[in-house]
Design goal:
Elements lengths: L6 E5 L3 H11 L4 E6 L2 H11 L3 E4 L8 H11 L4 E6 L4 H9 L2 E6 L4 H12 L4 E2 L5 H10 L4 H4 L3 H11 L4 H8 L3 H15 L4 H10 L6
Parallel strand pairs: 1-2, 1-3, 3-4, 4-5, 5-6
Length: about 210
Amino acid sequence: MDRKPARLIVADDHRLLADACKSLLQPEFEVVEVVTDGRSLVKAALALKPDLIILDIAMPRLNGLDAGEQIKQRLPATKLLFLTMNSAADVAAEAFRRGAAGYVLKQSAAEELLIAIRKVVQGESYLSPLIARETVTFLLNQGKPRSDERRITKRQTEILQLLAEGMSMKEVADVLDLKPGTVAFHKYRMMETLGVRTNAELLEYAIKRQMTSA
């Protein structure tokens, strides 16, 4: 008896790339949804409960690391495979720490993505050969998350990303269903925690930590 193809969601803020990815995968897998931001991804994942999610790290409204972590908390059986331009070993280690099963670089060949998906679907893990596995393993064994980012709370990380993408505090409040005063409180607590004094310094921090797709 033939096995049903694995059900996939593709998440990338570049729609053309996401659609091209769908076309590549569709003959072998069932792509049930394509989304272009992190919040839409979380919503789609909870509704569709896919076997595997292919997601970028730099996505608007909620970055891939945070979106993936939220999904794994609610759907532990759903596998995450990051497809990203980011080749930094510490970012790859953080992705695996957040629950990733695979990490592939966009500059790799399409064949590598297919190989990675097949391995992850079968319960194995996959790391692009372009990233030093020894370095990622070492960082994972340290057991320490990326220290800067963890100094602020998860809610503050969400707020910072939205602010860095140019939203006003009222717009951020609407997205997160908070009061503008609560957003302002979190913003100033963040600035205090991170030791920054201006909005420009806060934005620079967000960009350096790749917490925004902007």
